[in-house]
From TrEMBL:
CDD domains: Tetrahydromethanopterin_reductase. It comes from Kineosporia babensis. GO terms for molecular function: oxidoreductase activity, acting on paired donors, with incorporation or reduction of molecular oxygen. SUPFAM superfamilies: Bacterial luciferase-like (SSF51679). Residues 27-256 form the Luciferase-like domain. This is LLM class flavin-dependent oxidoreductase. Keywords: Oxidoreductase. The keyword Oxidoreductase applies. It comes from the Bacteria.
Amino acid sequence: MTSTADNSTTAASSGQPRLGVAFVPVVPPERLRSLVVAAEESGLDDFWVWEDCFKESGVASAAAALAWTERVRVGIGLMPAPLRNVALTAMEIATLERMFPGRVLPGVGHGVQSWMGQVGNRAASPLTLLREYSDALRRLLHGEKVTVEGKYVNLTDVKLDWPPLTPPKLWVGGEGPKTLKLTGEVGDGSMLSFAGSDTELGERVQLVREGVQAKAPALAGVGHEISVGQIAATGPDAQARVDAELPIWGRKPGPGNGVAGDAATVAADVRRLHRLGCTTVILQPTSDEPDLEGFIRFLGQEVRPLLAP
């Protein structure tokens, strides 16, 4: 008998993974236009902006990126639930989806707790908040009139005047085991912040699948997207740059942590992550990447063609 995890991995690893790039907010906002245009023109599937405190607005960045392009999907990862009233988030997502249908990938998470503490919005139970928030946000985006009295989310007869004609998939992200299960349960897609070794990634994908199955046992994860981030570099000193970058994001150099090399090497790692159950791979340039536009074109024009099944 084949296990649920095996079925899920097989389904996710069939076909071709989506390939995206992260617009890391260490890059100033005025660079956004040239980078998203490079992603569009080079053939990348996705372009992800971040909403890290206290750097750049994910929604403002996504709106501009969508307006400057016609094809590429634009993700927002992750909007911190404690920082945003859920009705406001629903209004912003709905507005973007109606203006740019089918290209918005909204993502929410419970935020970095130290940052949430800085703004006075640290939740005693981030998991409870994320569950309440995701449920209310989904219902609002589906055009429902929502009344809810939760520990954190409280709404009375709230209904969007302009809900999306087709509700976008809601992505939920996080890192801990309980959060990963929750992303599978309350999201249409799950965002994993880093790749890691086959064992590490396999364990995290399995936790997501368990959450999906708790929500809908008959589906066994079919249709649930999983994205994963991976730091990448090419060209001279690529490995040294990746190894120097990893500690900035709390990771140590080692098997599966980052990828450095030519197009064939990067494509092989993307296929590895896809084989382990990730439907979308988001490659993140190093902070000292000397040519961001060139890096994006490298991904779209040289790496992506190598991913065809």
